[in-house]
Amino acid sequence: MKKTCMWMSVAFVLLLISGCMGTKQQTEGNQQAGKEEKGQVQAKETKQTHQIEVAEIDKQNWIQQKEPVALPILMYHSISSGNSLRVPMSEFAAHMKWLKDNDYVTLSPEDAYQVLMTNSTPSEKCVLITFDDGYTDNYIKAFPILKQYGMKATIFMIEQSIGRLHHLTDAQMDDMMAHGISIESHTIHHLELNRLSQKQQEEELKGSKAFFDQRFSQQTIMVSYPVGRYNEDTLKLAKEAGYEMAVTTEPGHAKKEQGMMSLHRLRISPGLSPESFGRLVEGD
Question: Is this prediction's pTM over 0.90?
Answer without folding.
Answer: no
